[in-house]
Amino acid sequence: MRSRRDSAHKNGSAWRVNVARWRLVGPIAVWVVACAQVVFEAFGGSETSPAASVDKPTTICVSHILVHYWGARGATVVRTTETAMGIAREALAKVLEPGADFDSVGREFPRTYPDVVFERTGPFGRGKMAKSFDDTAFALRPGQIADWITSTPFGFHVIRRNPTVRCRQILIAYDGASRAIVTRTREEALHLAEKVRAEALQPASDFAALARRYSDSPDRLWGGDVGVFDRGRMVGPFEKAAFALKVGEISPAIESRFGFHIIQRIE
Question: What is the pTM of this model?
Fold first, then answer.
C-alpha cells in the first residue's frame, strides 16, 4: 500500500510540475512572438508593402562605367591599377559636372579608352552582383550617382542608380496592332479599354484579376505585372505614362503600336 501511495504521490507531484511548465508556455510564446515582431519591423517589415518597396527596394537598375586593369576579371588590356583608377576618377568627375548626362558620358569613355565598359543593367536584387557593387548600388537613392569609386574583382566602377517603376498593365489589342492576334477594330478596342478602366477604378476592384480576364498581353498570366524597369526599356507612350503615375494610380487608356494600355503603378 505504501508503495502505491508513494507512486501516486510521485505521479501527483510530476503532474503539478508539468502543469506549472505548461502555464509558462503561454507567456513565453507571447514573448517570442513580440520579439520576432520587433526584429521584423527593425528590418523594414514586409518586403511587399509599398513603404518597404520605396524605402528599401528589393530590385533596382543601374548604369555604370567599368574601368578594367590588368589582372581584373575579363580584362584584355595591359593597364596598371593606378592608370585605371585615374580613368575612373576622370569619368566620375565628368558625370558629377552640373548638367552632365551619365549615359552620354558612359558611352563616350569606351570610345576614348580601350577596355572601358559602359552598361545599363536590367533589374537585379541583392546578392546578384559583387558585394561591394551591391553595397554601393543599394545605398543610393533613385537618380543618385555615387561620388566614390567602387572596386570589384572586375575593376573600378562609377555607378548611378536609375529611377525605376514597377507596373501592371491591361493591354487591349486590335486588328492591325503590332503582334495582335485579335479581330476587334480599333474603335472596339478603345471602347473595351475605357470599360475595363472604369471597372479598375472601382474601390473594390482587383487590377490583377482584371488583367487575367481582359488583357491580350502574355503578362496577363502574372496579373499584368511587367516587373521593375527604368527608362528606355518600354515603348515610348507606355514609359511616359508609367513614370508620370504615383504609386497606386491607374492611367487612362494609353495607345502604343501594341494597342491600348491601362497601367497601374505598384512601386
Answer: 0.74
